[in-house]
Amino acid sequence: MLKSTLEAFTDQNGQARLAALAGTVELSNLIPPTVSYESRGDLLIIGDQDDIAACYQQLAKSLHSVTLLATERSAAATEKGENLYFSKEVTVKGYLGAFEVTCRVDGTVTETNANLAKIAIGRDCFDLVLDMTSGGVVAPEIPAPGYYHVAGNNTDAGNTKLAKVLDELPAMLGTFDKPKYFRLNPDLCAHSSRGVSGCDRCVDSCPAGALSSIGHAIEINPYLCQGVGTCATACPTEAISYALPDPENTQHFVYRLLANFQTEGGDKPTLLFFGNRDEVAVTNVLPHLPTNVIPVALEELATIGVDTWFSALVYGAHQVLLATNTAYIPATIDRVLTNELEIAQSFLAAMGYEENRIALFDLASAETFKGYESALLPAVDENADRTLTSERLEGTKREKLFAALELLHRNSPAKPEFTDVPENAPYGSVECKTNDCTLCMGCVAVCPTRALHAIGDRPGLLFIAEDCVQCGMCEKACPENVISLKPGLNWNAQTRKEAQVVYEEEAACCTSCGKAFAPASMVKMLAEKLQGHSHFQGDAIRRLSMCEDCRVRDVFSTVENDPESQLRV
What we know:
The chain is an alpha/beta fold. It has 18 helices and 31 strands. Strands 4-3-2-8-9 form a 5-stranded parallel sheet, with helices on one face. A hairpin with a 2-residue loop joins strand 5 (90-95) and strand 6. It is flat, with a radius of gyration of 31 Å. The termini are far apart.
């Protein structure tokens, strides 16, 4: 449908757009690993007794079993069927083929919550759940496959939705495969280290409840994951990446698409990103948009973020539009997109560019849309005598973003030195109250990106601003409470990339061999705190001023003559 609409435009930009889209490898042609659901057709219907009883008649013969759980009794019903249970307290967890339903079942011996599937059908779980309660039993904004919520309110919209679900349920038997949408690299994760908690951006951004913290790490349930993409967009370290397609292919697709459009004679390109579910709506408004607006379909709109948007502007796009269906979009997805957009527009505004060079696009405004006449970057860098957009950005998504920002900053009307960023943005630095810092390196031990690291050859702490994702673990791990986060973006690329000295001090030298072994302030602090301790009397307190090797040698040199001395180490 979209292709046939694109073929109808015969002007230069329309033909260039068609050729560019046809000549660029599609984003959806890469198949990731899959997970499988197994359903034999055991259905549970939850809701008012009258509503669920009516549905039973339509489904009883087409499914393996149908169990009814009434949350409200019917005044007209005179008898209870074998497959009908009553409970006001219901909990549903799981997914297609594995729904665990617990409740207080009226009429049973137990007074506590029980597994309804074991009571009703002798299995550990139900395969399908039709929820006809008004508010829904399941909390996530995007429920798991196999769970259908249709409020039994007898409205036209509700009846239409119910009829569709009743037609679909009999087909939900057998084995179903679904892509594993995401890849998780725990080595890059900034969630936790050495018992210190840090970044929770991915967990907070999942509308399907598929991500959870297991204390020391993030866990993704591939059966609950619906491929929305907000977790990968929110992840600052690329520990979570979208697999359909991966970020590398997404960025390269944008580069090739714009290059092909310009090669085919296209002019003043604007990219319109949209999720696959909005294809019909986008197709309908295309005739009302200029032909230099290039539609780019994604599995989900939230699978790309600021790195891809800014890369597109660097590659020659005059504007990046994000088409959203506000009637559908869940609150969590809306929040993540809004946060990313707020970050992007704050960067644009700081550089003196128009904020809506990256913007949400209301499809209803297509007829009045007018694009920008010029790109943010000139076609040719006069200083280097080369085409600015001829080189593809490489590296991680964070490296590509900073590379794009550097190019835009270099050519910007305003050249800011520092910009405040929206709350929870993964850009900034740390501040240290050096008077109280003991250089214990607790912050270094938990830093997930090595933004904080030791000098090495002498007591000191270094910091690289570009690598800091503001996870907060350094702040929490500091025993002296001298480290604090400072959100913001340093536009000076050199100082942002270089290791800056946060604090350094004179080294304490071993009183035995003379080797530098620790910060002098730390040795002094330990001696002052431990001088009254019973285990640090006499020679023991003296050993605090020795390196680890000399300390051990000194301990064992006296053990033979005074065996009890080892108890006083």
